[in-house]
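SAMPLE LOG
Freezer: B-3
Tube label: C17
Construct: single chain, 559 aa
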Amino acid sequence: MSEKIEITIVMDDEKLNKGKQSEQSNSIKLTQESSMTVMSVLRERKLLSGSFCGGRGDCGRCLVQFLAGAPLPTGIERSCLEPEELRQGFRLACVTRPKTDCVIRIPEQDVQEIPIVTELNPVSQNIDLNGQQNKLSENQISFAMKISESTAEAARNLNKNVSVISRRKAGVMIAVDLGTTTIAMQLRDMASGEVIDTYCELNPQRPYGADVLSRIQASCDGHREVLRRLVCETLMRGLRQFAVSPVCMCIAGNTTMEHLLLGYDVSTLGRSPFTPVEIGLQEMMTSRLFTKSEGVAEEADEASLPAGWDFPVYIAPGISAFVGGDIVAGLYTLQMLPGIFAPCQRDVKAEAGKQESVTLLIDLGTNGEIAITDGKRMLVTATAAGPAFEGGRNSALIGTDRIALTADLLRQGKMDETGFLAEANNRNEHYLNQKDIRDLQMAKAAIRAGVEILWEKMGCPEIGMVYLAGGFGYHLDVEAALVIGLLPERLRGRIQSVGNTALEGAYRLGRDLTAGDLMKSRLEEALAVTESGSLHAVNLAKQEGFERLYIQYMNLERN
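STRUCTURE (predicted):
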């Protein structure tokens, strides 16, 4: 059994005066096993939100400074941190294990605001969205990570002005976009689609890792119930703000997020052949969704359902382990699902004797999902984008800013196509280091290779329209994406940001399933992946040309 050590945590930028320490000193004393990482005790006491890499040391965001008793740096820390930082006692909380009593300062970190997109942009006139683009509510806007108190109060007042009785008569439902990074909820009129109220926050599972693989590992390490409860508490906060029992709720998320919400074993999602526990449309009552697991402490009451509230919940179906309900909801919004919607007229007409043009959907994030269809046949895939679309350790840049800055550096000749910085870049709010650039190159190569693989497997047809879905696509500078080669030059003029199609799709799926306009059997038939069917899931790792294309697109250049 390991020894107990005492850790003194300093919560500000002032060095601890150990000789004159008083009760007023801004410090906390903790005790932990010497075999444990610093992250484990800090996260338990909620002194550090966590690492975005799930404890692998990849992201470098759990930086702490040892003022006394610094352990020798690990190999991971030597590769991530500068020599001067190591000499000053900086270490990564997720990998360092102090063996003696020590004093640790938690540096003040810049809070990076992550925009939470809830709106749906009007799309091509050839796609019928039932007139919803003309009915967007004033509430259907983008919410920043931290909504100001005045904005929150305004939302509550709006909610009070719509009486419960009138809502019950009109019929309202709740749509949920359960994202890996953010969670967005909307209270909507079922008939008109009008947004009555909106609730957004960052996904509280983020301290257990920024990507799905990190969350899978955290669940397998014994945090399954904690991860489930964290999201249930978020959903309950939204329900309490809306203050009305709706007709139904529909939740759309990727396969891992939906599994974690339902408390499923996700171990098979993290290893080949990546088999989900359940991927079809699921229906349940809220009393089941929010049921406490055995042994859960009373503090979990925050996720308890108010008395008398029990309504149906739909969990959007997925296609594979990495193409989940959020993508299906987006495809439903854009009427791209073969077997559900008839082929639409394309914006680019096929010439005589040539194959009809196709539509491409790209959802960019920590995991990039891609779908391509000609209205009769559809191919889908997913690829890991990694941390590039988050900010870097030494940067307040979000991924879209990083792409725009990289494009500028290329235009100015300060960076070559290999990603090498021709001259030192000053440390300021736009600081990029070589690791930031390499992360972007790897994400860009994975997405671009995935696009090219699907296009080739469809027979290299004309691409009539490219839809960029999700928050990242909403804020992406398309010209910058073309400059660095994230998107091919041949698609210029055919790329359109469509916003949060997952949230819109959750509304549409819930509305149509409740009204009987969409039968569960028809949806399941359309989403069945078979050799002879119209839908095929492509595993990029097994594609012969993927590695070649990945290496080819590591370069940052138009092509």
